[in-house]
Amino acid sequence: MKTKVAIIGAGPAGLTAGYLLSKEEVDVIILEADPVYVGGISRTTTYKGFHFDIGGHRFFSKSKAVEDLWTEILPNDMLVRPRSSRIFYGGKFFSYPLRPFEALLKLGIFRSVFCVLSWLKARFFPVPNPRNFEEWVSNQFGKRLFNTFFKSYTEKVWGMSCKEISADWAAQRIKGLSLGSAIKNAVFPQRYNGDRTKVIKTLINSFRYPRRGPGMMWEVCAEKMQAMGGKLETGCKVTRCSYDETSGSWTVEYKDRQSDLHTIEAEHVISSAPMRELVCGLSPAVSERTKRAAESLKYRDFLTVMLILKDRQMFDDNWIYIHDPSVKVGRVQNFRSWSPEMVPEPDKVCYGLEYFCFEHDGLWDSSDNELIELAQRELIKIGLAREGDLVDGCVVRQKKAYPVYDDDYARHVATVRQELDDRYPNLHLVGRNGMHKYNNQDHAMMTAMLCVENILADTKLYDLWQVNADAEYHEAGPAATEETIGTGLRLVPTRVVAAPELAPEG
Fold this sequence. Notes:
Layout: E1 2-8, H1 12-23, E2 28-32, E3 44-47, E4 50-53, H2 64-73, E5 78-82, E6 85-89, E7 92-95, H3 100-107, H4 109-124, H5 133-141, H6 143-149, H7 151-158, H8 167-174, H9 179-187, E8 206-210, H10 214-227, E9 231-234, E10 237-244, E11 249-255, E12 261-271, H11 275-280, E13 282-283, H12 288-295, E14 299-310, E15 319-322, E16 331-334, H13 335-338, E17 348-357, H14 368-382, E18 390-403, H15 409-423, E19 427-429, H16 431-434, H17 441-457, E20 483-484, E21 490-491
């Protein structure tokens, strides 16, 4: 089979690229390993009529181009939902984003005074050039608030010390938020006035959301792409990408769900597959140095235990971060608070308990029944359920959910990028795992949008690596102006202002 563009992965990046290329009547095929779902980590899983997400996925972007595309795909199915989240710490619930006066009141007068003094010390004597997560966050909030509200949860998420996590991750996920900005927002709540560039995304109080979960967006996107002539093959795992240096074309090998081997010839390959796996499957093979760099990239895996319980009206937050180290659960989602249509029975609730782990560790290899029992016990211990409330449950495991930002990741990614750029000019990396870049789905979509523009123009108009974590594109130099791109969407070059969540989010 011959095609213009072969896309690896039907997540937000892959489907965005496929949809926009199909609109331009480009011959395109997407190969997705999952035999059932599209959307990657932004999919919505169903169990006995109940819908639940793999993580949390708010639909708010500082890019109008991304917002417009969401509206184009789902013009009549986007709800506007109130945002509500809290932190569970020390047996108490704290609003998140932190409301300083509430937090200080619940911490008590003496601890509060020490927290404020610690913050003042950080303001006057910050750590110069912070290298790790602990130093970066302590500069913003002070060491005591870091130890209280950031350390235990972050180490639960990543399975490593905060001193081993690169400051890049903190800067990307919570930039723009500090104790000062939180206090300002508590006194003068942030309101969206149409200028996305002025919004700290962590502080927004409402967002859009598909009425049956984020997977609805990507299922409809796939349907519309196919209606325009694009192809989608599910249950297909790419095993090798071979580049012909003479013709500049690609041969993509993949196995279908029956393990039969197939090949596709393509002029371009767009990959949202994990960088480590892609690099090891390239032919001609990369250098040993680049191969070692790719193999050194690490990932954090993730599982969701979905519980159906009797409705006791225990909480109505979208999610609660669990900072208490006495339980293993990291976050609890309440799917009815995302959308009432996620839960079909009015006397039931559907919670998603999120556990961060590494593939084949003790948690990952536990049986589904063991994980459901663990989740039930921990939910009762936290105070969000009672004995006898459990009706049913299921487990979903997600490999390579989060690229790890350790001390060496940036150096390894730079090594891989350099050789891929030099040797494989028609290979395009997009999305979270494709670029080994911790981002949300709007950022992943923006990398795909710009990739499409490069392919349509047959030149490198945009450097995809300059798309920042707020799904913005900024050109170097003072002459940056608003660009109109061929897909009819508008990209606004802008400075980096803020990044989204303390916690993993899609």
